[in-house]
């Protein structure tokens, strides 16, 4: 009888753990992806265009110069971003790949020009400075 | 004597299957008129099988336990919807979202099922009416929770979910985050027909569960209680508890069923989606040839196909036949309630017949 | 270890004021078959209920006396305790799940199961059933009985005999069953089935199981039992080895219940010749009182009694003729064939009926005495009505009703406050008088009275019987009394027909010896055939 109670408590704990796990892998975040001129201190990163942005090999956005769009990323933890700069015929000129993590709040912002120009601060996280 | 017996079985077969036979005949008549292509109909049937089968499956266990058609399954549907509202607010997407909604709905459904089962134990022999009315009562509770507590006692942060006054959930909740995520989890297309394989796998697993469940001690006890409560009691089976468990299982399965259903539809009508769930599931099961006392897995699937074939075909058939699609629309509602009424009446009539037959046998002059 | 299995000592039990068992002593040896015989109401069921510790015994104030099982005193307070102690019971009604196989029923709630991991979380009930093992256990139990019974057969498709065997197999499949009580197990069996059952009983006894065999078929009791105990009015009137007694001795020990305050009207043998009602091949589908094939003639002016044990079908006859239950056959009343299954027709033709179901069928409990008395006459004969507009509108004639009611209240000595008192406030005896008054108000040519004295006190019994008797003598009404109380019928009837297994076992003059009736009740053929038909 005692054994069964332990098993039952174990099951409930397991379900709670699974719930937390599901929450973490299933949570969706809105991310603003910007391909506009970006001013960071006194440096200005010029936008290039058009670019193709791919997150986690799944979500793909095509952005012209001076445009922005929304992407929904799923799950906490590390995400991958791949930025391809295209020429006018749609051929890839160069590719930059990076991994990053999110703030856990809505509305983090990614600046493509900053990323392409090798700045560390290419992602602007909400409430995290 | 032999001849009479044979006649009796043919008559009996017709009587037991009168509803599905009627539907097959109606469909045979209506399909050509509707001018739908075979591909379209197959696609529709696959979608509807995926969408509805699980809800109908949730009805089986109370029937085994002799509690009739569990109109109280709408309680489970409500629990499922509360789970969906929460995960939508939290923006949990895809399969994890669905799974989380199911986990949240489970304790709610258990609690509601427990309440329902306790009440039904006090209303033996009148389970169906009681559970039907109970559905309305709990609908009131559900509205209280969703309309007043959400956003007030239970924090809801997404503005697109909350009514402009600051609390209460809007009439329609967009389930884009989980839409079709299970159906097409494993993408399969055959001849241009998309097969919702993911959902079918889940349904298959639960069908297997029901088959297995019938072979457990609990399942055996439920069958015993369902057939003769007093005999079961005198053999020492805990009748009340067994009945209670059957309703709890049914309510929990109904919650999962509603989650799968809405996953397929893609929008939740906060205040209406659950209302029809019970009636349509029950109608589908009865169309499949089930009765108040006996229902099998084939009844479920045959019923879903026949009932929804009627749903899909009748508006168009009505349009081509009389020039009015509304007639078909009217026909569906008319048919679903009519089927329930007919099946209940036939069941009572047949039971009286069988009792008289049994007494004749007893008298020894059958 | 002594060989005495069961000892019931000084068992006395009363239900309220009514003593149903007086100082009953019973012993049962291992491997012995004890036949327990008695009329309905003799106390057999109460004795067995005490043995099983049924809640009803304790709800009505418990009992006096002691019960020893294997020399240990037992205090059962629920049947489950008795079962645990090794007492098995096979009931009259089948206690089987109709949709289960024989094997499933035999191991009901004692199924063999197989472990799976879910048991750890959700409990034993999620273990799966071990069908091969269940089947082998069932086969084994059936084998012990020495029967051929397919363990895979569904109960609802079995002949009744097999159902009975399944029940017995279930009891002996329990590992510790030492004592088996069989309550009228042969009542529903055919002769050959009953024979198999008796063989199985002897087989079990030879394995050391003690058996108490309750039956109304005396022949079987004599054949199968080692010892016979006869109960009458809660007392043991006979206890003998089966090979030292005979049918007649048992029968006369059974019947002849004392009824206080009843005087037998003897010395008045009336002869009748003209039949008023002829019944041929009547069957009635009344649950629990099935009539199979009844042939009967009722003579004009007589009082005919219909007796028989409970469940044999005596109540079905009147109910069938009155059209209250589905029936068939041919019934001729005053030369015309009476259509069956239509309750209005017999009433219109002048056949009255006082139902055994006083509160359900007989009375409108929420109405006054007066309305209850005239109700049927109003419906059938349009009596006590004022008609207007050529019969389109009918109003109750209240003055007439009150007048008639007062007359009956006085005549039948109905004790009440006034004539419009609700009948549900009356005592059972006075309710019965209202029922009779209503039947008399119809002025019937033939009156069926079923169980007129059931559930009323002794004083009222005498009054009710006197009313029936006087109605017959003063108005010449032909009356058919159906009753379980043989002695009461012997006091007022001219002839008494005994119903056994849905058929008339025989008709005797009321003055016949009580042992003759006893034999008929038990389904044994009366010994002097002349006596059966000598009245007409």
Mind explaining what this structure looks like?
The complex is a heterotrimer of chains A (129), B (366) and C (536). In chain A, the strands form three sheets. Chain A has a four-stranded mixed β-sheet with strand order 6-1-9-10. A four-stranded antiparallel β-sheet of chain A has the order 5-4-7-8. Chain A is 23% helix and 44% strand. Chain A has helices at 2-26, 112-116, and strands at 28-35, 38-40, 43-45, 51-55, 59-63, 67-74, 78-86, 92-101, 108-111, 123-124. Chain A has a single domain, classed as Immunoglobulin-like (Sandwich). Chain B has a single domain (2-363), classed as Orthogonal Bundle (ABC transporter involved in vitamin B12 uptake, BtuC), CATH 1.10.3470. Chain B is 73% helix and 3% strand. In chain B, strand 2 (188-190) and strand 3 (193-195) form a beta hairpin. By secondary structure, chain C is α/β, with parallel strands linked by helices. Chain C has 20 helices and 24 strands. Chain C starts with a strand and ends with a helix. Chains in contact: A-B, A-C, B-C. Chain B binds chain C through residues 212, 215-218, 220-221, 223-224, 227-228, 230-232, 234-237, 356, 359-360, 362-365, and chain C through 79-80, 83, 95-100, 104, 108-109, 111, 113, 124-129, 160, 188, 283, 285, 287, 290, 292, 326, 502.
